[in-house]
Amino acid sequence: MRKFLIHALLALFSVSGSFAAYAQSTDAPVAKTSTKATPADRALAKAVRRALAKTPGFDVSGVFVRARGGAVVLSGSVKSGEQIEQAAQITKSVDGVTSVTNKLALFHGGNG
């Protein structure tokens, strides 16, 4: 009985030790990346929104603009398919824009 208890304890310690070793990582710590917009990002998003708003017939009220390091993401909705492509073209023409991700969708109206 005593021998069984010793073997059981040894098995328990060896298993718990392997979990502790598994939990440790040899990877170097990862530097935190900021998800906050810088003043330059905010200025670029504002410039894109202003350019969209100046376009005749383009309703910018449902469009959201996010900029990070020159990369611009357009999201929200517009009233026609032509405006989806138009928004991308206008955005590309703004100084400082390096890339455009267009996630705009058609606004279908209604109450849900």
UniProtKB/TrEMBL annotation:
<dbReference type="Pfam" id="PF04972">
    <property type="entry name" value="BON"/>
</dbReference>
<protein>
    <submittedName>
        <fullName>Transport-associated</fullName>
    </submittedName>
</protein>
<keyword id="KW-0732">Signal</keyword>
<dbReference type="InterPro" id="IPR051686">
    <property type="entry name" value="Lipoprotein_DolP"/>
</dbReference>
<dbReference type="InterPro" id="IPR007055">
    <property type="entry name" value="BON_dom"/>
</dbReference>
<feature type="domain" description="BON">
    <location>
        <begin position="40"/>
        <end position="108"/>
    </location>
</feature>
<feature type="signal peptide">
    <location>
        <begin position="1"/>
        <end position="23"/>
    </location>
</feature>
<keyword id="KW-0614">Plasmid</keyword>
